[in-house]
Specification:
- It is a single chain.
- The chain has helices spanning about 5-30, 40-65, 70-85, 90-95, 105-110, 115-140, 145-170, 180-205, 210-245, 255-280, 285-320, 325-335, 340-345, 345-360.
- The chain has about 375 residues and is an all-alpha fold.
- The protein has one domain: Formate dehydrogenase/DMSO reductase fold, CATH 1.20.1630.
- The two termini are about 35 Å apart.
- Keywords: Cell membrane, Membrane, Transmembrane, Transmembrane helix.
- Its main location: membrane.
- This is Polysulphide reductase NrfD.
- One of its GO terms (cellular component) is plasma membrane.
């Protein structure tokens, strides 16, 4: 596929998904829908937030720890990918509120005990740091100091995100305090995956193909990173599965736990590990990009299982492990409500819109002088 056709296709799909998301949000707002559950809006926010943070952590391997290789040639790509992946998280979490203007209360009257308030504050700081990093990189003034500060904020933000889910779904034994560790592993996987896809697109647009040293970087850092983190991810999943399965009492129904484990361990872990290993062995960029797309889908779907079954576990616990079938049915129906999944489409739509525009409008090639945006000059 020609690069111009690829960018145009991304833009068209992005416009369609964003339009559906906006329409879904108006339906949600006009119907005064306020679901009890955390559903697709929250999942999509967590997905893009973790992806952006993971991408920044991968970039920090170079900016902080000095693992350069061909990094300088793609430094602007990687920072731009992190920034653009962070932005779609905001409309989703704001749109989840029945009164979106209430989002500002988080900053005007902060509750120090609220993890959600800290999440909003940390992600605003994080996004500003990414913008500063991009400006400094364009001006060739990027240093270790800003990299270390960014790394600290990224880790705090990501661990706080995992702690929110862990404290909310701490009823089953396999959730709780382990959730931040699982989120860090998932974030690294998503960071590697988004960077592989984003760098491949930018390279084909600018140079017609991925340059040899950039391809070497993707295999030497990203492909090996995926294999390594997947092994950690699998270990964590097997560990959580064992704790949740054998620790009495079992808070989550065995069938539900089996479904979660089947998806995340077999497809999310083993199949992705086999694909990544094959790409690394053959040095096939096409296989590596395909593996990255599979990982993106798998981690997002595993978040659906994680959040849905966590709330089913809460329902079982609240009803003293005798939850009526109607309660569980209502939980699933509310979770998959059109007032949640339709607005959530706005976020992937925005990413598909913003990244092609960034590739065409920003000076992302190394040593290219910014001409269009004054703030980047």
């Amino acid at each position: 596929m020609k690069p111009s056709a690829l960018l145009l296709g991304m833009l068209v799909i992005g416009v369609i998904l964003t339009a559906i998301g906006i329409w879904g949000w108006f339906m949600r707002y006009n119907n005064m829908y306020a679901g009890y559950l955390w559903s697709f809006m929250v999942i999509t926010y967590a997905f893009f937030a973790a992806s952006a943070t993971g991408s920044s952590l991968v970039t920090a391997m170079h900016t902080v720890f000095g693992y350069n290789g061909g990094f300088k040639k793609v430094a602007r790509y990687l920072i731009a990918i992190s920034l653009i992946t962070a932005l779609p998280a905001f409309p989703t979490i704001i749109g989840d509120l029945l009164n979106p203007s209430a989002f500002m209360y988080m900053f005007t009257s902060v509750n120090p005990e609220s993890r959600m308030a800290w999440m909003g504050i940390l992600y605003v700081i994080y996004s500003l740091i990414l913008l500063i990093e991009l400006i400094l990189e364009m001006r060739h003034k990027m240093g270790v100091g800003i990299g270390i500060f960014a790394l600290a904020v990224q880790l705090l933000t990501l661990m706080n995100l995992g702690a929110i889910f862990g404290s909310s779904y701490g009823v089953p034994a396999w959730y709780g305090v382990f959730s931040p560790v699982l989120f860090v592993a998932a974030a690294f996987l998503l960071g590697f995956a988004f960077q592989i896809v984003g760098v491949s697109i930018a390279e084909k647009v600018y140079y017609g193909n991925v340059r040899a040293d950039v391809k070497d970087l993707l295999f030497r850092v990203h492909a090996k990173g995926i294999v390594t983190v997947l092994l950690v991810f699998l270990f964590l999943l097997f560990w959580y599965f064992a704790v949740g399965w054998f620790s009495p009492p079992v808070y989550v129904a065995q069938q539900e736990m089996f479904n979660y484990s089947l998806w995340t361990i077999v497809l999310g872990g083993l199949v992705s590990l086999a694909l990544a290993s094959a790409a690394l062995a053959k040095r096939s960029l096409g296989t590596l990009v395909f593996t990255s797309l599979v990982l993106i889908v798998v981690v997002f779907t595993s978040l659906i299982y994680y959040v849905l079954y966590g709330q089913i576990g809460q329902a079982i616990w609240l009803y003293d492990f005798k939850a009526p079938p109607d309660v569980l049915k209502m939980t699933v129906e509310e979770f998959f409500s059109q007032y949640d999944w339709m607005p959530a489409l706005m976020s992937p739509g925005l990413w598909l819109l913003l990244y092609p525009l960034a590739v065409k409008l920003l000076a992302l090639k190394e040593d290219e002088r910014p001409r269009r945006l004054f703030i980047l000059r």
